[in-house]
Amino acid sequence: MKSKTFKPPIRTLMGPGPSDVSQRVLNAMAKNTIGHLDPSFVSMMDDTKNLLRYAFKTKNELTFAVSAPGSAGMECCFVNLVEPGDKVIICQNGYFGDRMKENVERCGGIAVIVNDDWGTKIDIAKAEKALKENPDACILAFVHAETSTGVKSDPKELVDLAHKHDCLTICDTVTGLAGIPLKVDEWNIDAVYSGTQKCLSAAPGLSPITFNKACEEKIKNRKEKVQSWFLDLNLIMSYWDGDGARAYHHTAPINNLYGLHEALVILAEEGLENSWERHYKNHTILRDGLAKIGIDFLVKEEDRLPQLNTIVIPDGVNDVNARKKLLKDFNLEIGAGLGTLAGKVWRIGLMGESSNEKNINHCIESIKSII
Amino acid sequence: MKSKTFKPPIRTLMGPGPSDVSQRVLNAMAKNTIGHLDPSFVSMMDDTKNLLRYAFKTKNELTFAVSAPGSAGMECCFVNLVEPGDKVIICQNGYFGDRMKENVERCGGIAVIVNDDWGTKIDIAKAEKALKENPDACILAFVHAETSTGVKSDPKELVDLAHKHDCLTICDTVTGLAGIPLKVDEWNIDAVYSGTQKCLSAAPGLSPITFNKACEEKIKNRKEKVQSWFLDLNLIMSYWDGDGARAYHHTAPINNLYGLHEALVILAEEGLENSWERHYKNHTILRDGLAKIGIDFLVKEEDRLPQLNTIVIPDGVNDVNARKKLLKDFNLEIGAGLGTLAGKVWRIGLMGESSNEKNINHCIESIKSII
After folding, report:
1. Hey, are the CB atoms on A250 and B72 less than 8 Å from each other?
2. Is A327 a domain residue?
3. Does A129 lie in the same domain as A246?
4. With bands split at pLDDT 50, 70 and 90, how would you rate the model's confidence at B107?
5. Which residues of B touch A20 (CB under 8 A)?
6. B328 Cβ partners below 8 Å, 6+ apart?
């Protein structure tokens, strides 16, 4: 073997994630590894739970980070809450709604899809119609911040509606957390999952998650065991629980958790509401700059995610070649379109550490020079 | 929120994992994060696959790291290879055999347990009897290096036997990889999973895994979809495949993979066989040192894992208090007994970076002073 130490090139990360990770978070990850049952590590886990509650705006006891990326966080919600035969209504307005359907079906559940066009927010009237037509549905699932299209939907409206029809709610806010308002308790969302590599600007690999008492009840009253041992909340609960003896479940990703903890400390220092405001303000700066070079947004103004800007590729510009050039000549990563939007749009992330004026200027100047 | 940057205490990690992580690996994890679809990252992933093939002694195409800890690696093997109704024979001689049973049953499979006493190796005659009594079994699963007891079993014998009875084999070598001889191709093991935080001395959070063609065939011919979306090898294969377009599956834990890559580069520099030899030699030094202070091993000499030494707690010594004192006064972490061995044994890890004479001396002197 002739492999050598890997030296990553220095990039500016303005795609759909990961976002730029700060030196503070990188330094945290490089701290000496200690045992996952070390009292000192356990107290850091407890502090991480509190910081996550702050970020989610919740008092939910069951709030922690799944030891795997956001897609495992999604799966954690579905395998624990969906039992064979359960009917789940999925509001689908992008790529990640499709993945929810896959999850429901692999749990033996029945997925009822409510379709909205990619690039539009979830239509509350359609969701209501589906709830009325499916009185046996027990869960409504939706994406708060669609990473594939740059659209934000309205959790509060959807949750109120679902609860009127006796449904629990599962909310995907992988790209939302810390970037746009999210108020888990005030909005009564039942199960919520996110990622670390978006607006928190920690390294990828963990999935912050929170469940309210109604979810805990459903999980405790399951007829069958959760199909995933690794993601079984009954087991994970006794691992993350700081009270009493900590049951061994798996070895936590120690250094990744150091990084997430530091990213959350940084968020608390800035203040959650200030973070939301910064993400919005920087979106307007990017928007105005792109307008000057004649670039249009896919999503209408009021439904846009400030942290994920989906822009229409100008006529005559080759998608792949242009992105290659941005990466090669400007060390700038932006995101491609997914699914039906492939080749038609770019996705410019202004998430977490990446959401700053220096990046915005670099991005606009780079795009200007290649179109 | 008044949380502060976490400062882990400096420990000597001589438990069942994580082991000490070298400064080189920590530095690698602190390198700037880049995108998971960045060509530069993709080539590092390809190099990681090659390095893992080196460590596993295999040419298997399907060799990579699951983006989650070893327990997810275990689950990845079972959910992909076990279909509902499949009968799986599990040789159980410790805690992790029990977890295999959980996995099989959660996949809708039928687990046939072959029990051996904790602290003994797997009895090949018992395994043969079970295979004869269950001609409809299609998989034999076993633990190469039982982390709960410090026992090594013989994969070659077990695999030869299983193949005679038309069974595929799943081998847990979470604690084995790089610490004791493992020859995946020469021994014809079908599916093998490991962890990063043992003899590789990378941070926890990833699970190296390898599957041969027979497994690929079984997975491709499944009647039902894999129940886990996150661990579905059909999807992961197209993500880790370096040829052609890389399909988006999930966001890889970038910085953890930097760390694993560096740990594998270090292993290649040392040489795999030299690493096996170092682990063995250091075990004999520890063994001789402990003998001088009258401490016995649980496992008989020829079945011991050199990297995980299970010793009998001396009479009159309080398990919990003694380990607390080791941690508090000597910053030394050793492992408790699990399951039926709780309170009766300690587990002293000499894994990866932790396997060195300085640690051994520190460990013996510390134990001497508290008993």
Report:
1. yes
2. yes
3. yes
4. very high
5. 33
6. none
Same domain, yes or no: B207 and B282: no
Contacts for A210 with CB less than 8 Å, ≥ 6 apart: A52, A53, A56, A58, A60, A62, A63, A184, A191, A192
Residue B7 lies in a domain: no
Task: Tell me which chain B residues have a C-beta less than 8 angstroms from the C-beta of A333.
Answer: 34-35, 38
Q: Each residue of B153-212: pLDDT tens digit?
A: 999 999 999 999 999 999 999 999 999 999 999 999 999 999 999 999 999 999 999 999
CATH code (residue A322): 3.90.1150.10
Query: Region A316-322: what's the mean pLDDT?
Result: 97
> What pTM does this model have?
0.97
Q: Of B214, B239, B267, which one is at a domain's C-terminal end?
A: B267
B3 and chain A in contact, CB less than 8 A: yes
Distance from CA of A125 to the nearest CA of B (A): 30
Question: B35 vs A11: CB contact, 8 Å cut-off?
Answer: yes
The radius of gyration of chain B's CA atoms, rounded to the nearest angstrom, is 21
pLDDT reported for residue A244: 47
- Which residues numbered 129-188 in B keep a CB inside 8 Å of some CB on A? none
| pLDDT single digits (tens) A214-253 | 999 999 999 999 999 999 998 887 777 655 456 678 899 9
Q: In terms of domains, do B263 and B276 share one?
A: no
Asked if the C-beta of A53 comes within 8 angstroms of chain B's C-beta atoms, the answer is no
Q: pLDDT of A107-165, one tens digit each?
A: 999 999 999 999 999 999 999 999 999 999 999 999 999 999 999 999 999 999 999 99
- What mean pLDDT is predicted for residues B302-325? 97
| B350/B245 same-domain check | no
Residues B96 and B230 in one domain: yes
Please give the interface size between A and B, counted as residue pairs whose CB atoms are below 8 Å apart: 271
Same domain assignment for residues A327 and A350: yes
Confidence at residue B248, expressed as pLDDT on a 0 to 100 scale: 73
**A253: chain B residues, CB-CB within 8 Å:** 69, 203-205, 253, 256
pLDDT over threshold 70, residue B290: yes
Residues of A in contact with B31 (CB under 8 A): 6-8, 26
Residues A280 and A240 in one domain: no
Quick check: A6 and B259 CB within 8 A?
no
Given CB atoms, is A22 within the 8 Å cutoff of chain B?
no
User: Is A2 inside a domain boundary?
Assistant: no
Q: How many domains does chain B have?
A: 2
Chain A residues close to B230, C-beta within 8 Å? 68, 71-72, 75
Model confidence at B322: pLDDT above 50: yes
Which residues in chain A have their CB less than 8 angstroms from residue B7's CB?
Answer: 31
Distance from CA of A254 to the nearest CA of B (A): 6
B75 and A CB contact within 8 Å:
yes
Q: Does B195 touch chain A (CB under 8 A)?
A: yes
Give residue B244's pLDDT.
47
Domain boundary among A267, A299, A332: A267
Region A51-68 average pLDDT: 97
**What separation in angstroms does the CA of A126 have from each of A110, A131, B283?**
18, 9, 66
Q: How far is B124 from chain A (nearest CA, A)?
A: 28
Q: Does B307 touch chain A (CB under 8 A)?
A: no
Provide Rg for chain A, Cα atoms.
Answer: 21
- Cβ–Cβ gap A69/B250 under 8 Å: yes
Nearest CA in chain B to A68: B68
A38 plus A177 within the same structural domain: yes
Q: Supply the CATH number for residue B243's domain.
A: 3.40.640.10
Domain membership flag for residue A1: no
Give the residue, B174 or B1, on which the prediction is more confident: B174
Range of the domain at B135: 23-267
A181 by Cβ neighbours in 10 Å (0-12 / 13-18 / 19+) ranks as: middle
